[in-house]
Amino acid sequence: MSRDHIIPQFILRGFAINPTANKQDQKIMIYDKATKQVHTKKIADAYSLLNFNSPETEKYLANEYESKVAKIFQRASKAASEKQQSISLSNKEYKMLFRFFVIMWRRNNIQLEKAKEMGTQLENMLKSLFRNHYKEMLKPEYKDYSFEKFFNEKIDDVRKALYDKVIPETKDDDPTVLKTIKHYSPFIVNNISHIHFLLHNTYATLRYVVPKNQNEIYAEDVPSIMIYPISKTLCCCMLLSDKEIDTTKEKYAMPIEVWNNDEDIKLHFIDGYITPTAKSFVIDNTNLSLVENAISRSSSYNC
Q: For helices 155-166 and 109-130, what crossing angle results, to 10°?
Protein backbone atom coordinates (compact mmCIF):
# COMPACT_ATOMS: atom_id res chain seq x y z
CA MET A 1 0.00 0.00 0.00
CA SER A 2 1.31 3.42 -0.93
CA ARG A 3 0.70 6.77 0.67
CA ASP A 4 -0.07 9.28 -2.09
CA HIS A 5 -0.06 13.01 -1.49
CA ILE A 6 -2.79 15.05 -3.18
CA ILE A 7 -0.53 18.06 -2.62
CA PRO A 8 3.13 17.20 -3.29
CA GLN A 9 5.43 17.17 -0.29
CA PHE A 10 7.88 19.55 -1.96
CA ILE A 11 5.16 22.22 -1.93
CA LEU A 12 4.08 21.46 1.63
CA ARG A 13 7.68 21.86 2.83
CA GLY A 14 7.55 25.48 1.74
CA PHE A 15 4.93 26.00 4.47
CA ALA A 16 6.70 24.10 7.26
CA ILE A 17 6.54 25.70 10.69
CA ASN A 18 9.90 24.06 11.49
CA PRO A 19 11.74 24.34 8.14
CA THR A 20 15.19 23.64 9.62
CA ALA A 21 14.14 20.21 10.95
CA ASN A 22 14.86 17.00 9.10
CA LYS A 23 12.39 16.44 6.26
CA GLN A 24 10.73 13.53 8.04
CA ASP A 25 10.10 15.74 11.08
CA GLN A 26 8.83 18.87 9.33
CA LYS A 27 5.28 19.91 10.20
CA ILE A 28 2.54 22.22 8.96
CA MET A 29 -0.47 23.84 10.64
CA ILE A 30 -3.84 23.07 9.07
CA TYR A 31 -7.09 24.96 9.62
CA ASP A 32 -10.23 22.87 9.05
CA LYS A 33 -13.08 25.00 7.75
CA ALA A 34 -15.85 22.68 8.93
CA THR A 35 -14.66 22.26 12.53
CA LYS A 36 -12.85 25.61 12.76
CA GLN A 37 -10.02 23.78 14.49
CA VAL A 38 -6.28 24.03 13.93
CA HIS A 39 -4.09 20.95 14.09
CA THR A 40 -0.43 20.27 13.40
CA LYS A 41 0.62 17.41 11.15
CA LYS A 42 3.84 15.98 9.87
CA ILE A 43 4.23 16.72 6.18
CA ALA A 44 4.72 13.01 5.51
CA ASP A 45 1.14 12.46 6.75
CA ALA A 46 -0.59 15.66 5.61
CA TYR A 47 -2.85 15.59 2.56
CA SER A 48 -1.98 11.94 1.94
CA LEU A 49 -4.33 9.08 1.13
CA LEU A 50 -3.62 5.37 0.87
CA ASN A 51 -3.56 4.16 -2.75
CA PHE A 52 -5.09 7.39 -4.03
CA ASN A 53 -3.39 6.88 -7.43
CA SER A 54 -2.44 3.75 -9.27
CA PRO A 55 1.27 2.85 -8.80
CA GLU A 56 1.89 3.76 -12.46
CA THR A 57 0.36 7.23 -12.15
CA GLU A 58 2.10 7.96 -8.86
CA LYS A 59 5.46 7.00 -10.37
CA TYR A 60 4.72 9.08 -13.47
CA LEU A 61 3.89 12.16 -11.37
CA ALA A 62 7.04 11.77 -9.27
CA ASN A 63 9.43 11.27 -12.19
CA GLU A 64 7.92 13.51 -14.85
CA TYR A 65 6.78 16.44 -12.75
CA GLU A 66 7.36 16.65 -9.03
CA SER A 67 11.14 16.20 -8.98
CA LYS A 68 11.57 18.60 -11.91
CA VAL A 69 9.13 21.28 -10.76
CA ALA A 70 10.69 21.15 -7.28
CA LYS A 71 14.01 22.20 -8.84
CA ILE A 72 12.34 25.15 -10.58
CA PHE A 73 10.75 26.23 -7.30
CA GLN A 74 14.14 25.95 -5.58
CA ARG A 75 15.68 28.17 -8.25
CA ALA A 76 12.89 30.69 -7.78
CA SER A 77 13.48 30.72 -4.02
CA LYS A 78 17.22 31.23 -4.50
CA ALA A 79 16.66 34.01 -7.06
CA ALA A 80 14.22 35.79 -4.72
CA SER A 81 16.62 35.56 -1.77
CA GLU A 82 19.36 37.03 -3.98
CA LYS A 83 16.99 39.85 -5.05
CA GLN A 84 17.11 38.85 -8.70
CA GLN A 85 14.43 40.35 -10.94
CA SER A 86 13.58 37.15 -12.81
CA ILE A 87 14.44 33.51 -13.38
CA SER A 88 15.14 32.02 -16.79
CA LEU A 89 13.32 28.90 -18.00
CA SER A 90 14.01 26.85 -21.10
CA ASN A 91 11.15 26.18 -23.49
CA LYS A 92 10.88 22.66 -22.09
CA GLU A 93 10.82 23.84 -18.46
CA TYR A 94 8.34 26.61 -19.21
CA LYS A 95 5.83 24.26 -20.84
CA MET A 96 6.34 21.61 -18.15
CA LEU A 97 5.43 24.17 -15.47
CA PHE A 98 2.18 24.97 -17.26
CA ARG A 99 1.38 21.26 -17.65
CA PHE A 100 2.05 20.72 -13.95
CA PHE A 101 -0.39 23.45 -12.95
CA VAL A 102 -3.06 22.07 -15.29
CA ILE A 103 -2.57 18.57 -13.84
CA MET A 104 -2.80 19.92 -10.29
CA TRP A 105 -6.15 21.47 -11.22
CA ARG A 106 -7.42 18.33 -12.92
CA ARG A 107 -6.44 15.90 -10.17
CA ASN A 108 -8.29 17.56 -7.29
CA ASN A 109 -11.62 16.29 -5.99
CA ILE A 110 -13.57 19.10 -7.64
CA GLN A 111 -13.37 17.18 -10.93
CA LEU A 112 -14.77 14.02 -9.34
CA GLU A 113 -17.58 15.99 -7.74
CA LYS A 114 -18.39 17.50 -11.14
CA ALA A 115 -18.42 14.03 -12.70
CA LYS A 116 -20.84 12.79 -10.03
CA GLU A 117 -23.05 15.83 -10.52
CA MET A 118 -23.14 15.33 -14.29
CA GLY A 119 -23.96 11.63 -13.86
CA THR A 120 -26.80 12.43 -11.45
CA GLN A 121 -28.20 15.01 -13.88
CA LEU A 122 -28.11 12.44 -16.69
CA GLU A 123 -29.85 9.90 -14.46
CA ASN A 124 -32.61 12.40 -13.65
CA MET A 125 -33.03 13.24 -17.33
CA LEU A 126 -33.39 9.55 -18.24
CA LYS A 127 -35.91 9.03 -15.42
CA SER A 128 -37.94 11.96 -16.70
CA LEU A 129 -37.73 10.74 -20.28
CA PHE A 130 -38.52 7.04 -19.74
CA ARG A 131 -40.54 7.32 -16.52
CA ASN A 132 -41.69 3.87 -15.32
CA HIS A 133 -39.65 2.14 -18.00
CA TYR A 134 -36.38 3.47 -16.65
CA LYS A 135 -35.85 0.70 -14.07
CA GLU A 136 -36.71 -1.93 -16.69
CA MET A 137 -33.67 -0.75 -18.66
CA LEU A 138 -31.29 -1.50 -15.80
CA LYS A 139 -29.65 -4.79 -14.90
CA PRO A 140 -31.44 -6.46 -11.95
CA GLU A 141 -28.57 -5.80 -9.54
CA TYR A 142 -28.79 -2.04 -10.21
CA LYS A 143 -32.56 -1.51 -10.13
CA ASP A 144 -32.48 -0.18 -6.56
CA TYR A 145 -29.26 1.77 -7.04
CA SER A 146 -29.01 5.50 -7.55
CA PHE A 147 -26.16 6.79 -9.64
CA GLU A 148 -24.81 8.63 -6.60
CA LYS A 149 -24.71 5.42 -4.54
CA PHE A 150 -23.02 3.53 -7.37
CA PHE A 151 -20.51 6.36 -7.89
CA ASN A 152 -19.67 6.55 -4.19
CA GLU A 153 -19.13 2.79 -3.95
CA LYS A 154 -16.89 2.78 -7.03
CA ILE A 155 -15.11 6.07 -6.31
CA ASP A 156 -11.65 4.50 -5.99
CA ASP A 157 -11.97 2.72 -9.33
CA VAL A 158 -13.42 5.81 -11.02
CA ARG A 159 -10.68 8.07 -9.69
CA LYS A 160 -7.84 5.80 -10.70
CA ALA A 161 -9.28 5.18 -14.16
CA LEU A 162 -9.78 8.92 -14.64
CA TYR A 163 -6.31 9.94 -13.46
CA ASP A 164 -4.61 7.06 -15.30
CA LYS A 165 -6.03 8.53 -18.48
CA VAL A 166 -6.02 12.29 -17.84
CA ILE A 167 -2.58 12.77 -16.28
CA PRO A 168 -0.39 11.04 -18.91
CA GLU A 169 -2.46 12.59 -21.71
CA THR A 170 -1.82 16.13 -20.48
CA LYS A 171 0.79 17.06 -23.09
CA ASP A 172 2.02 20.33 -24.59
CA ASP A 173 -0.66 20.14 -27.30
CA ASP A 174 -3.46 19.53 -24.79
CA PRO A 175 -6.07 22.25 -25.58
CA THR A 176 -6.16 23.60 -22.01
CA VAL A 177 -2.36 23.58 -21.67
CA LEU A 178 -1.90 25.24 -25.05
CA LYS A 179 -4.55 27.86 -24.38
CA THR A 180 -2.98 28.69 -21.01
CA ILE A 181 0.55 28.95 -22.41
CA LYS A 182 -0.59 31.20 -25.24
CA HIS A 183 -2.76 33.54 -23.20
CA TYR A 184 -1.23 33.84 -19.72
CA SER A 185 1.97 35.50 -18.57
CA PRO A 186 3.51 33.96 -15.43
CA PHE A 187 5.26 35.94 -12.72
CA ILE A 188 6.42 35.24 -9.19
CA VAL A 189 5.42 37.28 -6.15
CA ASN A 190 8.12 37.50 -3.48
CA ASN A 191 6.22 38.31 -0.31
CA ILE A 192 8.28 40.22 2.27
CA SER A 193 5.30 41.53 4.21
CA HIS A 194 4.36 40.43 7.73
CA ILE A 195 1.63 38.10 6.41
CA HIS A 196 2.49 34.74 4.88
CA PHE A 197 0.76 33.09 1.94
CA LEU A 198 -1.83 30.33 2.36
CA LEU A 199 -2.24 26.95 0.75
CA HIS A 200 -5.60 25.19 0.43
CA ASN A 201 -6.50 21.58 -0.30
CA THR A 202 -7.48 22.24 -3.94
CA TYR A 203 -4.21 24.15 -4.51
CA ALA A 204 -4.98 26.62 -7.30
CA THR A 205 -7.36 29.56 -7.19
CA LEU A 206 -8.76 31.02 -10.40
CA ARG A 207 -10.13 34.54 -10.17
CA TYR A 208 -12.61 35.99 -12.63
CA VAL A 209 -13.85 39.46 -13.50
CA VAL A 210 -17.60 39.12 -13.98
CA PRO A 211 -20.45 41.66 -14.29
CA LYS A 212 -22.03 42.76 -11.01
CA ASN A 213 -25.36 41.15 -11.92
CA GLN A 214 -23.72 37.74 -12.60
CA ASN A 215 -23.83 35.47 -9.54
CA GLU A 216 -21.92 32.44 -10.85
CA ILE A 217 -19.04 31.48 -13.10
CA TYR A 218 -19.96 30.02 -16.49
CA ALA A 219 -17.92 27.72 -18.73
CA GLU A 220 -17.23 30.51 -21.19
CA ASP A 221 -15.84 32.86 -18.53
CA VAL A 222 -12.07 33.33 -18.63
CA PRO A 223 -9.95 33.70 -15.45
CA SER A 224 -8.18 37.03 -15.19
CA ILE A 225 -5.51 35.59 -12.90
CA MET A 226 -4.56 32.18 -11.54
CA ILE A 227 -2.75 31.73 -8.21
CA TYR A 228 -0.39 28.82 -7.51
CA PRO A 229 1.42 28.98 -4.13
CA ILE A 230 5.07 27.91 -4.02
CA SER A 231 5.81 28.58 -0.35
CA LYS A 232 4.74 30.84 2.50
CA THR A 233 6.67 33.70 0.84
CA LEU A 234 6.56 32.82 -2.88
CA CYS A 235 3.63 32.48 -5.23
CA CYS A 236 3.37 31.90 -8.98
CA CYS A 237 0.64 33.87 -10.73
CA MET A 238 -0.66 33.54 -14.28
CA LEU A 239 -2.01 36.84 -15.58
CA LEU A 240 -4.26 37.03 -18.64
CA SER A 241 -2.19 38.59 -21.42
CA ASP A 242 -3.27 41.27 -23.88
CA LYS A 243 -1.36 39.55 -26.65
CA GLU A 244 -0.69 35.94 -27.56
CA ILE A 245 2.51 34.45 -26.16
CA ASP A 246 5.08 33.00 -28.56
CA THR A 247 5.40 29.27 -27.73
CA THR A 248 8.56 28.72 -29.81
CA LYS A 249 11.05 30.82 -27.85
CA GLU A 250 14.15 29.05 -26.52
CA LYS A 251 14.13 30.95 -23.20
CA TYR A 252 11.51 32.66 -21.06
CA ALA A 253 12.19 35.16 -18.30
CA MET A 254 9.72 34.85 -15.43
CA PRO A 255 9.64 38.18 -13.55
CA ILE A 256 9.91 38.30 -9.75
CA GLU A 257 7.86 41.06 -8.11
CA VAL A 258 8.55 42.11 -4.52
CA TRP A 259 5.41 42.82 -2.48
CA ASN A 260 5.81 44.28 1.01
CA ASN A 261 2.40 45.76 1.87
CA ASP A 262 0.33 43.77 4.37
CA GLU A 263 -2.99 45.08 3.05
CA ASP A 264 -2.13 44.14 -0.53
CA ILE A 265 -1.20 40.61 0.53
CA LYS A 266 -4.40 40.30 2.55
CA LEU A 267 -6.57 41.57 -0.30
CA HIS A 268 -5.05 39.58 -3.17
CA PHE A 269 -3.54 36.48 -1.54
CA ILE A 270 -5.70 35.85 1.53
CA ASP A 271 -9.21 37.07 0.67
CA GLY A 272 -8.46 36.67 -3.04
CA TYR A 273 -7.11 33.13 -2.65
CA ILE A 274 -9.74 31.58 -0.36
CA THR A 275 -12.39 29.70 -2.35
CA PRO A 276 -15.79 28.29 -1.27
CA THR A 277 -14.72 24.80 -2.41
CA ALA A 278 -11.60 24.70 -0.23
CA LYS A 279 -12.11 22.63 2.92
CA SER A 280 -8.79 23.18 4.69
CA PHE A 281 -5.93 25.65 4.68
CA VAL A 282 -2.23 25.44 5.49
CA ILE A 283 -1.71 28.43 7.75
CA ASP A 284 0.58 29.87 10.40
CA ASN A 285 0.31 32.48 13.13
CA THR A 286 0.69 35.38 10.66
CA ASN A 287 -2.54 34.60 8.82
CA LEU A 288 -4.74 32.37 11.00
CA SER A 289 -6.97 35.18 12.24
CA LEU A 290 -7.31 36.54 8.70
CA VAL A 291 -8.49 33.15 7.44
CA GLU A 292 -10.95 32.79 10.30
CA ASN A 293 -12.37 36.26 9.65
CA ALA A 294 -12.59 35.74 5.89
CA ILE A 295 -14.42 32.43 6.26
CA SER A 296 -16.72 33.89 8.91
CA ARG A 297 -17.63 36.78 6.59
CA SER A 298 -18.26 34.35 3.75
CA SER A 299 -20.51 32.17 5.89
CA SER A 300 -22.49 35.18 7.09
CA TYR A 301 -22.91 36.39 3.51
CA ASN A 302 -24.11 32.98 2.29
CA CYS A 303 -26.66 32.85 5.10
A: 110
Q: What sign for the dihedral angle of Cα 152, 156, 161, 164? A: positive
Contacts of 283-288 spanning 24+ positions with Cβ under 8 A: 283/29, 283/30, 283/31, 283/38, 283/198, 284/15, 284/17, 284/29, 284/196, 284/232, 286/194, 286/195, 286/196, 287/195, 287/196, 287/197, 287/198, 288/29, 288/31, 288/38
- Tell me the Cα Rg of the chain: 21
In angstroms, the CA 223 to CA 226 distance is: 7
Series of mean pLDDT values for 10-residue runs along the chain (303 residues): 82 96 96 96 89 86 93 97 97 97 80 69 78 74 73 72 87 93 97 98 89 66 92 98 95 98 97 93 97 81 45
Tally of residues, the chain: 303
Q: What pTM does this model have?
A: 0.85
3-state SS, residue 199 = strand
For every residue of 141-180, which 3-state class applies, written as one string? HHCCCCHHHHHHHCHHHHHHHHHHHHCCCCCCCCHHHHHH
Taking the CA atoms of residue 45, residue 46, residue 49 and residue 51 in that order, the dihedral angle to the nearest 10 degrees is -60
Compute φ and ψ for 232, nearest 5 degrees.
-65, -15
